[in-house]
What we know:
- The chain is of the alpha/beta class and 269 residues long.
- Strand 5 (132-137), helix 6 and strand 6 (152-155) form a beta-alpha-beta unit.
- The protein is globular, with a radius of gyration of 20 Å.
- Helix content is 45%, strand content 19%.
- The protein has helices spanning 11-22, 32-46, 62-70, 89-103, 120-128, 144-149, 156-159, 177-196, 202-208, 220-233, 260-268, and strands at 4-10, 48-56, 74-78, 109-113, 132-137, 152-155, 200-201, 236-242, 249-255.
- It folds into two domains: 4-164, Rossmann fold, CATH 3.40.50.1010; 172-268, Orthogonal Bundle (Arc Repressor Mutant, subunit A), CATH 1.10.10.
- The protein is built from eleven helices and nine strands.
Amino acid sequence: MAGEVEVFMDYENIRVGLWRHFQMRLGTDIQIITFLESIRKLAGEIGTLYEAHIFGDWTLRGEDAREIEAAPQFRAQLVLRAASKKDRTDTALNFAIDDVFRERPNIENILLCAGDSDYCEVVRRGSRLNKSFYICAVGAQTAPELLSLSKAFYPIEQRLGLKAKEQQELDIARLDASELSKWTPLLKQLERAELRLQDVVRSHFINSWMSPGLGYGRDFDEKALLIDSAVELGIVLNDHVPHPETARPVRTIRLNREHPMVKVVLARS
């Protein structure tokens, strides 16, 4: 085995990926302690776990943070979202890994639990310093470039014993009834907009189709956050079209008609 291993995890990246591709929720379908122990076991296969840093906005998931902090050698690192609600984990995590390069040069092995291409540059920098990077993330959403830069890749779904499936092959019987009820009004409203409009401009949909009193939120920002959550779940997709006058890209949204939840809602319409 190699020497000490330090773990860095983008919690939202993993959490959203498990839901989007397997409809499994961390903390509900997958217990936090089970999840952490799978990471501890993997780190032990690589070397000796030094410490594991789990990055996320814990103001939104306080109970998850408490369970993480209760696990020996695991630390919940707080990264507040921007005022625009944008997740900023990638920036904070990149800086934290750079700090390890400078402050703990004896750490030669990094287990990165994230699949975004945003982490490619820090992996390159580490490689130039003879650091070994191992990636553990949801296979279907791990950037090919990140895979090519790593020493080894471990699909998190395999570590958790999840059966790999394409999203469209998921059994619709496993859909959570409360989630289905929560998202049905929005999905039906977006379907109506798609039937009437060639392209559904995101801002127009929020202003004109998400009426107050329908449970979407009171102001533009709250409604926009709901749309962002739907995109994270994979039931709504972001897109762009050129503005007819300026040709600048305009943000649009559309239903992900291949998602099992969307299929169920449309079938009931």
